[in-house]
Amino acid sequence: MQTGSSDSPDEVLSVINTTPLVDVMLVLLIIFLITIPVVTLSVPVQLPKERNELRQSRPENIVVSVDAKGAIFWFDTEVRDPAALVERLKAVATRDPQPEVHIRGDLEADYESIGRVIQACQRAGIARVSFITEPPAKG
User: Do the beta carbons of residue 101 and residue 62 sit within 8 Å?
Assistant: First the structure.
């Protein structure tokens, strides 16, 4: 942008010099391109792969379900609170061999509800806890 005419040397010419702005932007771009891969891949971890295991359901396995509202069920019977679940699990934890606990959690259930069941299994001394899920859709 220029003001005034080029005939008069005393007139002020105001021009926006964008060269320093472009230089700073290029330097920032180079810094981001160099540092982003280092930040995202700084800790080497091996992520789990999706897999489907066909498990045999044995009659001695315990199925604990959690519905969308957070209610806990021992097979088909509702358990009134996590303390009652711990007592039931303690009774079956003494069996030899110890049964597995399969948790069926509703998709809409809170993590807290599922966590209460896992904590109950831990307090009762259950060694094997697994989750029942739907197999992935083939597409």
Answer: yes
